[in-house]
Amino acid sequence: MLDGPTMVGVLKACGVTHVVWIPDSELGRWDAALRAEPDLHLTRVCREGEAVAVAAGLLLGGKQPIVAIQCTGFFEAGDSLRNIVHDMKLPLFILVGVRSYRALQEGPTADTCPVFTVPIVEAWRLPYKFLDPEQDGVDLAAYYRQSRSAGVAAVALLPE
Hints:
With 160 residues, this protein is α/β, with parallel strands linked by helices. It has helices spanning 4-14, 31-36, 48-60, 71-76, 78-87, 101-106, 113-123, 138-150, and strands spanning 18-21, 41-44, 65-70, 93-98, 128-130, 154-159. The longest helix has 13 residues, at 48-60.
């Protein structure tokens, strides 16, 4: 799993200005590093739909935010995603922690979150990429830059 200092380095190198999130599961381990970095504004929200809306406002204001949420929160954020990505056509970048993904790869799990994540991302017609947590953020940085230069929304899926 990517650690906090590595994630901070990747985000800064990509020009990210804000991390809008609910520090859940694995992603929450980055909290101390993100809080300690003065060049990244950390914005905590109450609901994932709110995270999408706050990030949209930041995009409209000329900032470069990312949304970092867990897969169940991504499910909850659907209406905000529809409006902001498809109606407003904003190039929102969302990092989604896919809870129990590794457990599912090893065999049956009671957690249905990893089963529904990709079909829901595809239902929202969003491009996505599974990240390799062992790549120290190299693939995250490349995917972020690719989506930004294309001016499109994108989802990065981080197996947990």
